[in-house]
UniProtKB/TrEMBL annotation:
Enzymatic reactions: [L-4-(L-arginin-2-N-yl)aspartate](n)-L-aspartate + L-arginine + ATP = [L-4-(L-arginin-2-N-yl)aspartate](n+1) + ADP + phosphate + H(+); [L-4-(L-arginin-2-N-yl)aspartate](n) + L-aspartate + ATP = [L-4-(L-arginin-2-N-yl)aspartate](n)-L-aspartate + ADP + phosphate + H(+)
Role played: Catalyzes the ATP-dependent polymerization of arginine and aspartate to multi-L-arginyl-poly-L-aspartic acid (cyanophycin; a water-insoluble reserve polymer).
Domain ATP-grasp: 221-474
EC number: 6.3.2.29, 6.3.2.30
Subunit details: Homodimer.
Protein name: Cyanophycin synthetase
Statement: the UniProt record of this protein carries the keyword ATP-binding: yes
Keyword terms: ATP-binding, Ligase, Nucleotide-binding
Record family assignment: In the C-terminal section; belongs to the MurCDEF family.
Length: 874
């Protein structure tokens, strides 16, 4: 067996619209192609011995053990690998559960598809599942435990922390989209101008000055003290003289802690005599010169969480500890504690396992204990100096027990410090009495407080503290998304996208759009290149200035990693024609339909799919579309249009020279095609088609007819604005057309246009694209033979796996098959071919260059135009 390719899908894809996170592994079964599982002696037994939990997989049989039964009866290795992949992820704490295995059109080569939770875990799982299957088949050992541990490690490294994760989960539950920015925990919620950001529990609204105040413990204490909120009395000291003075004033017991400390570093607690106080000062000064000396408050550690100035949760925190039973030593007690199933690896469970570290050893040392010491029955031995959950601490929810006066005080504190998400540490005997009565005090105020102790306390009620964060970022009724129109199809995507974007922009929106030429915001191109995949879509959706997205969405990106958005408002399918067949397991128009329909399947239920009634394969999709559908046609008598009109539905047609919206049988005329420059005086039918698509999509979005009409009239095709889309250059005696047509449908579109062009002679410059099917290259030659009088065959820059001779002979046989007496010649370089064509032009010649590197061709023609103007001037 050999893995040919592992792809990570991240958005709606050909396998599933809802299951966005899938691994697609292309697997060559090689020798295994002839060895189903029942032909490998002992396979089932070894599989069951290695992964007994596969018993839960029902597979197609629908009963427990169903999968094992299939293995016994004989199934192919791809299918086995899919189940192994799902199960090892489950064993590593990532329960997913979606899988598909399909043979491709190449015998022995399969696509094994399964869902993942963390991307890199998915990739590792793919590799290991094949390895596991191979070992089982060969009767070799495989260390499953090591594989699961490795998966857990990758998971902990990759996944969002518990606080960030909880907010993302809450957003997803509310259907708010999210994008992880970078590798850490910075997350964008929402799209474009409606986005909000957060990182752990710092939000885009968290005030920087508030964080500064909270980080300065002394300043925080002073501000709270000034506001009559109880804090431990004390002062800052830098030497023993200071210390003595403070001790005289506040008396014992005291606490010494470094001013800039955290996690309890350098801190000495419950000091009752001068000698210990002096040592405590030295200890604290190893961390910072300035040291806080304050009264030791007795009681328990509490954490109160205030979000958007409302208390949402309170917890009592207990550092990791063990309780003696009079028999076991400390090490044994820790081992026993770690057996608690709630304690897991990293953040996988409610609690974290207790690891023995320097802090633990120091604490034990202070008690004159070692790990071998046997504590008394009922004796509590602390193993950590702080109550953080990540070091094995536990928490008890006490939210409902907080005295109203304390609630008011905590909410006031959050305002005094100015923190939108505020964690207040309180030392007190309890929170059920007002602090002033219990003698408790505020120890510090934390910015970015962790949520895990409230989300999953070890005792008491779990609290959804992520919900108030999302409430704050998105109060009721505040939009989270921006409108998305996605455009797909074989031909006309870029033109339609640009037209729609132009209309949207003229309606006052700041539009971001992606095309196969580049990414644009308003009129500015931000990156150049084929930007029709998910990363480009995300570029637009991440931009905080964009109010409306129009996304050209091509085949390549969908197949590579799925869509870059989970759903769109309007999906436009221009047509499904022969192109790119024979690539990526797409062999015919039916396969291609499966790819293009992903865009329409991603349209929201109450959104619109805009489809071409003149296109057979598009119309075959009609019964499968879940959203509302509107169709367009060049012919108002098209059967589908007539049916739609009869049913009172919305359509868009070309009739009597007008672009017209129909609501049922009622007609609303938008504009005359003659007056829409991109239609080349209504001569280019395919451009009219694109105008119909764009008009219909924008009408359905809700733009006014007059506004659409104005925009259509002001969209000027030009070599700058729409390079390679029917750019006509006029010379004194002849004309040159530069166009990007590169497949039979594109050639036919040009043929149709040329019928309306008057000329004495038509010269064409064409080329075959190397990675297309024989019949497609032949067909292009044939259409060229029909529409030109003389043909110059050139070669593409990239031959994509064929020789020039091969491609050219296919084209030539196409030309000959056209049945017309056409002359042809071969000039490999595009620029040379174009120069030659212009040199042989006579009065009334019309040259059509179906170009590869459009910008070079345009530069050359414009240079010739300038030369002509200069010569005229002489
Ligand atoms: P962390 O980063 O874990 O919050 P820190 O270094 O910021 O720790 P503090 O929060 O000030 O330090 O104190 C840590 C722990 O030490 C407190 O939770 C409390 O248990 C104890 N402590 C600190 N100051 C006092 C005090 N004045 N009286 C009693 N206990 C105290
Ligand atoms: P690509 O897949 O290369 O990005 P595209 O779908 O974005 O192509 P456009 O760039 O709009 O298509 O147009 C490319 C060429 O395809 C045009 O210059 C024209 O020759 C042809 N074309 C455009 N629209 C249509 C149409 N509606 N029907 C058939 N051919 C078209
Ligand atoms: Mg603290
Ligand atoms: Mg394009």
């Amino acid at each position: 067996m050999k893995i040919e390719k592992i792809q990570v899908l991240r958005g709606p894809n050909i396998w599933s619209i809802r299951r966005k996170k899938l691994i697609q592994m292309r697997l060559d079964l090689e020798e295994m192609e002839h060895l189903p599982t029942n032909k490998i002696p002992g396979f089932r037994e070894r599989l069951e011995a290695l992964i007994p939990s596969l018993i839960t997989h029902r597979c197609s049989e629908g009963v427990e053990g169903g999968f094992f039964h299939r293995v016994e009866m004989g199934t192919w290795m791809g299918h086995v690998i899919e189940h192994i992949a799902l199960e090892i992820q489950t064993l590593a704490g990532m329960d997913t559960g979606f899988g598909r295995t399909r043979e491709t059109k190449t015998p022995g080569i399969y696509n094994v598809v399964f869902s993942y939770i963390e991307e890199n875990c998915g990739v590792y799982t793919a590799e290991q599942s094949v390895e596991i299957a191979r070992c089982i088949a060969d009767g070799k050992e495989y260390n499953l435990e090591a594989c699961i541990q490795k998966l857990k490690e990758i998971r902990e490294r990759e996944r969002l922390g518990p606080s960030t994760g909880s907010i993302v989960e809450e957003a997803v539950a509310r259907n708010i989209p999210w994008i992880r920015l970078g590798k850490n925990s910075l997350v964008q919620l929402g799209y474009g101008v409606n986005q909000q950001r957060f990182q752990a529990t710092i939000t885009g609204k968290t005030s920087s000055i508030a964080v500064d105040i909270a980080c300065n413990k002394e300043l925080t204490k002073k501000m709270l003290d000034d506001a009559a909120i109880p804090v431990p009395t004390g002062d800052l000291v830098v030497d023993e003289e200071d210390l003595e003075r403070v001790v005289r004033r506040i008396g014992y017991p005291i606490v010494l802690k470094p001013l800039d400390g955290n996690h309890g570093r350098g801190q000495t607690i419950n000091v009752n005599d001068w000698e210990t106080a002096k040592i405590g000062l030295q200890h604290a000064q190893t961390v910072s010169r300035r040291v806080i000396v304050e009264r030791y408050i007795t009681g328990f550690d509490f954490r109160v969480l205030v979000i958007n100035h409302k208390m949402v949760a309170a917890a009592r925190r207990v550092p990791a500890h063990v309780v003696g039973d009079g028999e076991m030593n400390i090490q044994q007690l820790i081992d026993k504690e770690n057996l608690d199933p709630r304690r897991g690896y990293g953040h996988e469970n409610v609690l974290t396992e207790i690891l023995i570290d320097k802090d633990t050893n120091e604490l034990l040392h202070k008690l004159n204990y070692t790990l071998e010491t046997v504590p008394l029955k009922g004796e509590m031995v602390y193993l950590k100096s702080t109550a953080n959950l990540s070091t094995g601490g536990t928490s008890i929810d006490v939210t409902d027990m907080v005295h109203p006066e304390n609630v008011t005080m905590c909410e006031r504190i959050s305002k005094i410090i100015g923190l939108d998400v505020c964690g207040i540490d309180i030392m007190a005997e309890n929170l059920t009495q007002p602090l002033k009565e219990s003698g408790g005090a505020i120890l510090e105020v934390n910015a970015a407080p962790g949520f895990r102790m409230h989300l999953a306390p070890s005792e008491g009620l779990p609290r959804n503290v992520a919900a108030p964060v999302v409430d704050m970022l998105y109060p009721h009724g505040k939009p989270t998304r921006i409108p998305i129109i996605a455009v797909t199809g074989t031909n006309g995507k870029t033109t339609t996208t640009r037209l729609i974007a132009h209309i949207v922009k003229n309606n006052g929106f700041r539009v971001g759009f992606t095309t196969s030429d580049g990414i644009y915001i308003q009129n500015t191109m931000l990156t150049k290149g084929d930007t029709t995949g998910p990363i480009s879509a995300e570029f637009i959706l991440k931009d905080p200035t964009v109010e409306f997205a129009v996304l050209e969405t091509a085949r390549g990106g969908i197949l590579r990693s799925g869509l870059g958005f989970s759903y769109c408002d309007i999906g436009v399918l221009t047509n499904i024609k022969e192109d790119h067949l024979g690539l990526s397991d797409i062999h015919n128009l039916k396969d291609l339909t499966r790819v293009k329909r992903v865009v329409l399947d991603s349209v929201k239920k109450d959104g619109w799919s805009v489809m071409n009634a003149d296109d057979e394969f598009s119309m075959r999709l009609l019964p499968d579309i879940d959203s509302k559908v509107a169709i367009f046609s060049l012919d108002e008598n098209n059967a589908h249009i007539r049916k739609f009109a009869k049913e009172g539905k919305i359509t868009c047609v070309y009739e009597e020279g007008f672009i017209t919206i129909k609501k049922g049988e009622w007609k609303i005329r938008i504009a005359k095609a003659m007056n829409i420059p991109i239609t080349m005086e209504a001569k280019a039918k395919f451009m009219i088609s694109n105008v119909l698509a764009a008009s219909l999509a924008t009408y359905l979005y809700g733009f006014e007819i007059e506004d659409i009409a104005n925009s259509l009239r002001t969209f000027m095709p030009s070599a700058q604005l729409t390079p390679g889309r029917l750019n006509v250059f006029k010379f004194k005696n002849f004309k040159v057309l530069i166009d990007f047509a590169h497949n039979p449908a594109g050639y036919e579109a040009i043929e149709d246009y040329l019928k309306n062009v008057e000329s004495s002679k038509k010269i064409g410059i064409i080329a075959g694209v190397g990675d297309r099917r024989d019949e497609d290259i032949f067909e292009c030659g044939k259409i060229a033979g029909r529409m030109f009088d003389h043909i110059i065959i050139r070669n593409e820059k990239h031959l994509r796996g064929r020789t020039e001779e091969e491609i050219n002979s296919l084209i030539i046989s196409g030309i000959q098959d056209s049945g017309r007496n056409v002359t042809y010649e071969i000039i490999p370089k595009e620029i040379e071919a174009l120069k030659h064509a212009m040199s042989m032009a006579e009065e009334g010649t019309f040259i059509t260059a179906l170009s590869d590197v459009v910008s070079n061709a345009i530069d050359l023609v414009q240079e010739y135009q300038n030369k002509e103007i200069l010569e005229e001037g002489k």
